[in-house]
């Protein structure tokens, strides 16, 4: 079985200029946890998830550091903090989305898609044909395929 056999074909997407508040509303209304971000030609630019938006509701914690011989040594990851600040202050999706998106071709065998999801600890994988979005596979799609296979 291939990705195209189990993917959801009607994918809700947003553009990078969409307002963060609108995306949160879409997630809630459609009871989904993530949305691919695409350009006008359906190329995947990123993905915005509940996790990305939850940062806006959290309290930002400045990374701990110590000064040693006139050098600053960070005890927490300052890059992660900078990314969180960007997401915390984001008004548009382009600033809140995750830019490094794992995608799979529509002809990828389902076991490989599942392995990617497990290895990367992600809940959804956009499915592409010629680098353009044609579907999405979520954990729920995988479970549905198992039920259909055994049912």
Identify the CATH homologous superfamily: CBS-domain
Low-confidence stretches: none
Which outline best applies?
Answer: globular
Q: Quick one: how many beta strands?
A: 7
Summed up, the helix count is 7
Q: How do the strands line up in the largest sheet?
A: 5-6-7
Count up the domains.
1
Query: Radius of gyration over alpha carbons?
Result: 18 Å
* Biggest sheet details: 3 strands, mixed
SSE order, one letter for each helix or strand: HHEEHEEHHEHEEH
Helix content estimate? 25-40%
CATH topology: CBS-domain
Which class do the helix and strand fractions yield? alpha+beta
CATH class: Alpha Beta
Beta-strand residue percentage: 15-25%
End-to-end CA span = 16 Å
Overall pLDDT, averaged? Answer: 84
Q: Which CATH architecture would you pick? A: Roll
Give an account of the 3D structure.
The protein has a single domain, classed as CBS-domain (Roll). It is of the alpha+beta class. The protein is 38% helix and 23% strand. It has helices spanning 3-6, 20-30, 50-54, 78-88, 93-96, 110-120, 139-150, and strands at residues 34-38, 44-49, 65-68, 71-74, 104-105, 124-129, 132-138. It has a 3-stranded mixed β-sheet with strand order 5-6-7. The chain has 7 helices and 7 strands. The longest helix has 12 residues, at 139-150.
